[in-house]
Structure formats: C-alpha cells, structure tokens
Amino acid sequence: MLKTCGVIGAVLLLAACGAPKPREVPARAAPEAAAPAEPPPGAGIYRIDAAQSELRLLVYRAGAMARFGHNHVIVNRAVGGWVKFTGDASKASFSLSVPVADFVIDEAQTRGEEGSDFSEEVADDARSGTRHNMLSAGLLNGEDFPSITLTSVAVSPTVAPAGGYAIGTAAAGAQAAGPQAVGAQTVGAQAVGAQAPGAQAPGAQATGAQAAGLPAAGTFTVTMVVRVAGHASTLVVPFMLETSSGRVSASGSVALRQTALGLVPFSVMLGALQVQDELTVKFRLVAVS
C-alpha cells in the first residue's frame, strides 16, 4: 500500500513539475517582438479592445496514466494589435500579439463554463506547475519569445462543407490557394459558439462593399501566419465576422495540433502521462475605431 501511494505521489509531482521534452530552438534566435507590426496608412484602422477580447485554449490529458493529470482551460485576455477594415471583408487585414506571460491557467469560472471534462478542481500548486511547464524553454520559451504573433495573409468568404470547416498547416511562407493554403491538411475543425452576425447598428450608413451589396459580416476564412517560440506556421481558420458602427468582431472555435505550431506536447514517464497533441482554440476578438 505504501509503495502504491509512493508511486502515485511521484506521478503527481512529475505531472506538476516535470520537464517537457526538449525542443530545438534556433541558435541565437532574436526575441519575438512584444508588439504587432504597425498598421498600414489610411482609413479603417481598428484597435483590439483587450477588455472585450479573449483567447481560450482547451488542453486535454493523455497517456496510460492520464487519470493522474488534468485537462486544462488556459485563457489570455491581453491580446493586442490592429485590424484594417473598410467594409469589404476580403480586403481586411490584421496583426495581433498575444503576450505569453498573460496566459491564466484553470480559473474556476472558466473551467465551469467548459462542462464535465473540466469539472475537476485543480490545486494551486498544479496550476503553478502547468504555467511553469508552458512558459519553459521546451514549450513557449517565454523568456526569449514573450509574444505569439498572428498576421493575416488573405480573407475569403466561407461556404461550410459537409462535416465542418478546414484548417490547414504549411511551412511558413506558403501561398494561399483559395480558402486553404497549398499542402494544408484538413483537421475537421468547426466554428462553434459564434453568435449570429450582427448586421449594422440602426441608422448607420452603408459604406464600401456594404453599399455594393458585398458581404461585410458573416462566415469567412482567414489564412494567417502564426509565430510561436521562433517557429512560423501558416494556418487556415474559419471565423464569424460581426460589424457595427465603430466596432468589428471575430469569433469562432478551431482544433489544431501543437506539433503544427512547432511545439512538442508535454510528456513525462516515457509518455505514460502526457498532453494530447490536438487542442481546441476558442476566440472572440473585438476591435474598435
């Protein structure tokens, strides 16, 4: 009995404080910029309102000893950056920055919002261990790369195929071909929880594409370059666009693989306790003029 308890205790300790597998980091890599690129000149610039925006990650345990770990809800409410939007979504662009030090681990309220998979209470020391692992050199490498950046390449209207939306991954710099990057793989992610597009505020005048009858709100697909811990990936992500006077918002949910971002999922005890490669990303981004 004592031996069994000792094994369980060792597993729990490793789960909170174990070191992730080493990941190759470019030699003398320059730190990631703390702020997104400056917006292009001209009208139609909106700034991200962090108070109304949120990036939420749902991370799941795996392995033969998964019962000794936890599923995690990781939230960031410090997203910054800009959106350029003049009424025609296909001509929109953005540059966003996500400071990795501002990720919050397993708040009781957010766990409660995500249902039974996250109903288990997570102790403070386990939350601290998860944060330590996430920011370590083997994962996000927060010391050298304090921000994750997202930069748009192209935006296009989306027609939902049977079975869900497509998300692609490709080497950085891959060119978009329609709504999906060349060589992109289909993961079957689906936009969920997005609210119905809020047309225009009452009394607001239509401009640009709206006046021409082109869509300014609805479901779209964005091809973007994501830079995480010195690695650049091209992703294709569906989102719901809502517009009103002085306000633009995008929301959705997508499944992606950590390895597609150049990350090595956390693992201890030869994989007996690990984090699933696939995670779910939920987002709501609000920009105001």
Please tell me about this protein's structure.
It is a single chain. This protein has a single domain, classed as Lipid/polyisoprenoid-binding, YceI-like (Lipocalin, Beta Barrel). Helices cover about 10% and strands about 35% of the residues. The protein contains three helices and 17 strands. A hairpin with a 2-residue loop joins strand 10 and strand 11. The N terminus is likely disordered.
Helix content: 10-25%
CA(first)-CA(last) distance: 64 Å
Unreliable stretches covering 5 or more consecutive residues? 1-23, 25-34, 161-214
Radius of gyration: 20 Å
Q: SS-based structural class? A: mainly beta
How many DSSP-defined strands?
A: 17
Q: What would CATH call the homologous superfamily?
A: Lipid/polyisoprenoid-binding, YceI-like
What is the CATH first-level class name?
Mainly Beta
How many strands, what sense, and barrel or not for the largest sheet? Answer: 8 strands, antiparallel, barrel
What fraction of residues sit in β-strands?
Answer: 35-45%
What is the N-to-C order of secondary-structure elements (H for helix, E for strand)? HEEEEEEEHHEEEEEEEEEE
Q: Please, how many domains?
A: 1
Strand order of the biggest β-sheet: 1-5-6-8-12-13-14-17
Whole-number mean pLDDT: 74
Number of helices: 3
CATH architecture designation: Beta Barrel
Principal-axes geometry comes out as globular
What's the CATH topology name?
Answer: Lipocalin
